[in-house]
Amino acid sequence: MLRVERLQAAYGQSQVLFDVSLDIGDAEVVTLLGRNGMGKTTTIRTIMGLTQARAGQVSFDGMTLTGRAPEQIARVGIGLVPEGRQVFPTLTVQENLVATAANRLKRSPSWTLERVFNLFPRLKERTQQMANTLSGGEQQMLAVGRALMTNPKLLILDEATEGLAPVIRAEIWSCLATLKSEGQSILIVDKNLGVLRRFADRHVVIEKGRTVWTGTGADLDRDAEAIHRYVGV
C-alpha cells in the first residue's frame, strides 16, 4: 500500500533524512522506532508532503506521492494524527470531527459521528464542548477521530500516547487494537515498545535519518541487544 524508498529530506541546509525505506501492506500495522531526533517525525512529514523530499520516492497504491501537495496526499486516503494533536481549538468536538469529513474512496462501512462516538464514548459526552477545554487525552481521541472521519486507507499516528495519563494511554491502545481488528492499516510512532511489540506486525528502526533495522515482533525479541542500541529501551 505505502512504499517509501531511499527517502532524503532536509530543513534548509541541514539534512535530516539520508536513506529511509519502509513499506506497509493492506491491513498491516507497522511501527517507526528510534530515539528522539533520529528523523521519525520528518519521515512522516515528508510522506505527507509537509516537508519536501530531496531525493527518493514515496508511493501509495501505485501512485507517486513525491512532490504532491499535502491536501492532495490526504485525498488519496492517508489520515494523519500529528504530533501534538493540533485539534482546532476554537471549534467544538463535533465541529472538529465534521470539518474534514469525507469518504472520497467510498469505503464501507464509512466513519460517521456515531461510529467515532462508539469508539470514543468520552467524545460523545463532550459533543458541544470547545476542543481547547478538553484534557490532553480527550484531545488525542479527538485527533484520532478527526483523522478517521476522512475514511483513510492508511492511518498515521505520530506519538499517539505521549504525555498521557496511564489510564488514558490504555484507552487509546484499546481503541487502536479495535481499529487493527477491523483491518485498518496503521503506521505508528510511539516510545512504548512493550505495547508495540504485541500490537504491530512489523517494526522499522531509523538511526540518524537512515533505516537500520526491520523485522517482526519475534525478530525484535531475538535482536533485543541491537534494538536497545538504536532505541534505548
Structure, explained:
The chain has helices at 40-47, 70-75, 93-99, 113-119, 121-125, 136-148, 166-181, 193-199, 217-222, 224-231, and strands at 2-11, 14-24, 29-33, 53-60, 63-64, 78-81, 154-158, 185-189, 202-207, 210-216. The chain has 233 residues and is of the alpha/beta class. It has a single domain, classed as Rossmann fold (3-Layer(aba) Sandwich). A six-stranded mixed β-sheet has the order 6-7-8-3-9-10, with helices on both faces. β9 (202-207) and β10 form a beta hairpin. α3 packs parallel to α6. The mean pLDDT is 94.
The CATH topology is given as Rossmann fold
Per DSSP E runs of 2 or more residues, the count of β-strands stands at 10
Write down the secondary-structure element order. Answer: EEEHEEHEHHHHEHEHEEHH
- Strand content is 25-35%
> What is Rg?
17 Å
State the gist of this model:
By secondary structure, the chain is α/β, with parallel strands linked by helices.
Layout: helices, strands, pairs:
Elements (H helix, E strand, L loop, with lengths): L1 E10 L2 E11 L4 E5 L6 H8 L5 E8 L2 E2 L5 H6 L2 E4 L11 H7 L13 H7 L1 H5 L10 H13 L5 E5 L7 H16 L3 E5 L3 H7 L2 E6 L2 E7 H6 L1 H8 L2
